[in-house]
Design a protein that fits this description.
elongated; Endonuclease III, domain 1; mainly alpha; Endonuclease Iii, domain 2
Length: 202
């Protein structure tokens, strides 16, 4: 990450200024139940507050003995998952993810050799996982360095703030703007998100 940050900052003055303001960006700590656990947490957290998500994640984990595993969800009843706070749709989603991990459709090995495009293509077959969730998984869990999530509103807004673009670029307009930063577009995306946090804090 440090080498990638130095490389992209050297290519663009506006980005270098943002990097100097924000400082180093670090990866989030890995979950003890790995990439599968991150995907489950992502599904549970959709369209609810962070506080509600934490509570439901905690109750769901407790119902399964502490860790999220595909086999654990197979062995846990719908009633127990609903009692933990999962909606009917989210129960269907976590079951679909579990089934696709067990049958090999989705590879949750952190060292998977699947390409970024293959990971996204397989994950978006899972009920409740869209392209944005798949791209965040690539960036934060698999730690892939060349993801450019043009559908992320914060990335688009942060690009507009950093490069003083008005109006904010659409997803299709942002797509080619990442090209100068290959193969480290994930780093640029992370700093764009940080630009939004800085703007809101000021």
């Amino acid at each position: 990450m440090d080498n990638a940050t130095s490389a992209v900052a050297a290519r663009d003055r506006a980005l270098a200024t943002l990097v100097a303001k924000v400082g180093p960006i670090r990866y989030l700590p890995r979950f003890p139940d790995g990439p599968f656990g991150m995907l489950i947490r992502s599904i549970i957290s959709q369209q609810i507050s962070a506080a509600a998500a934490r509570a439901i994640i905690g109750r769901t984990a407790a119902a399964m003995g502490g860790l999220f595993t595909p086999d654990g969800f197979v062995a846990t009843s719908d009633d127990a998952l609903r009692a933990a706070g999962l909606s009917r749709n989210k129960v269907l989603s976590v079951r679909d993810l579990s089934a696709k991990v067990l049958d090999g459709t989705v590879d949750v090995n952190p060292s998977t050799r699947l390409s970024d495009a293959e990971v996204v293509e397989r994950l978006t077959k899972v009920r409740g996982i869209g392209r944005w969730s798949a791209e965040m998984y690539l960036m934060h869990c698999l730690r892939r360095l060349d993801v450019w999530p043009v559908g992320d509103l914060d990335v688009r807004e942060g690009y507009a703030l950093t490069w003083e673009v008005e109006p904010m670029p659409t997803a299709s307009e942002l797509e080619p703007l990442g090209e100068p930063f290959r193969p480290y577009r994930s780093v640029v995306a992370r700093y764009c998100q940080e630009a939004v946090f800085l703007s809101r804090a000021s």
